[in-house]
C-alpha cells in the first residue's frame, strides 16, 4: 500500500502524548482542535483521520476520500457507522486501554468523598488545625467502604474490575445489567429499582445507548437511601443532572461524577449551585486519561493502522 496521509483533528484531547509515531506511515498533520466548518478543508486528500470527538458524518465522507477512520476512544457515537459501512470506509476504535485508569479514578473520587478529603485538607491549609486544642478534628464524619452495599450499573470490563476492588475493600457487591444479558455468577444481580433502594453506593459504568439514556431520573433518585452515593463514570446523559442537584441539597444524596451530558460543563449548571458542596465531587472527564492509558491508546491506534495496511496490502 502507498504511503498514507493521516490527519489528527483534535490532538488537544490527547494531552502531552507524542504523536510523531504516525509520521512513519507517510504524511502526518495534527490540529489542536477542529471546528465543524474546518473539517472538510483539513481532511481534503487525507486517507486516515484520527478523531476523538470531532464528528465524521455523511457530509464529511461524501466530500472527502477517507479510507480509514481511527477513533481515539472506545465510544463510536461521533461517527456515522452505517454510512461508513456503505461507503466501504473502515472504522476502528480502541477498547480496553483505560480500564485501570477509570477504576482508579472511581475509587479516588469515592474515597475522597467517604473520607471528607476536601473538608479536612481545607481545614489544615486554612491554618485552623494550628489553632486547635486537640490533635484531631471530627467535625465531618468519615465512613468505611467495608460492609456497604455497592451496586454497579453496567458490569462490563470496567464494571467487573470495580466490583473486584470494591469486594477487596469489604463491600457487598451487586449489579444491574443494562443489556439484560449479563449473568455473572460471582455477584448478586438485581433489577434497577431494587438496586437503587438497597445500595449505599451506586456506580455507573455503562455506555450511553437507547437502554441507558435518562436511566436515572428524579423517580429513580428518590428510590435511593438518604445520604447514599451515586457515581457516574460511564457517560453523561444517563443521569438527570438537574434532579441530582436537587437531591444533593434536599435529600443529602452524595455524588461523584466524571461525565456530564454537555461537555465542557455549561455555565449556570445546577450542580455548580448546590449548597452541600462537600457532598459532590466533579472531575472534567479525566478518568480515562492516565499517562499510561493515553500511551496505550496511541499504541493501539498505531496497531489499528498497521492492521488496516496489512488487510489492504496490494490495493
TrEMBL record:
It comes from Campylobacter suis. This is 2-hydroxyacid dehydrogenase. Pfam families: 2-Hacid_dh (PF00389), 2-Hacid_dh_C (PF02826). Keywords: NAD, Oxidoreductase. CDD domains: 2-Hacid_dh_4 (cd12162). The keyword Phosphoprotein does not apply. SUPFAM superfamilies: Formate/glycerate dehydrogenase catalytic domain-like, NAD(P)-binding Rossmann-fold domains. InterPro entries: D-iso_2-hydroxyacid_DH_PdxB (IPR050418), D-isomer_2_OHA_DH_cat_dom (IPR006139), D-isomer_DH_CS (IPR029753), D-isomer_DH_NAD-bd (IPR006140), NAD(P)-bd_dom_sf (IPR036291). Its EC number is 1.-.-.-. Belongs to the D-isomer specific 2-hydroxyacid dehydrogenase family. Residues 19-312 form the D-isomer specific 2-hydroxyacid dehydrogenase catalytic domain. Coiled coil: none annotated. Residues 108-287 form the D-isomer specific 2-hydroxyacid dehydrogenase NAD-binding domain. One of its GO terms (molecular function) is oxidoreductase activity.
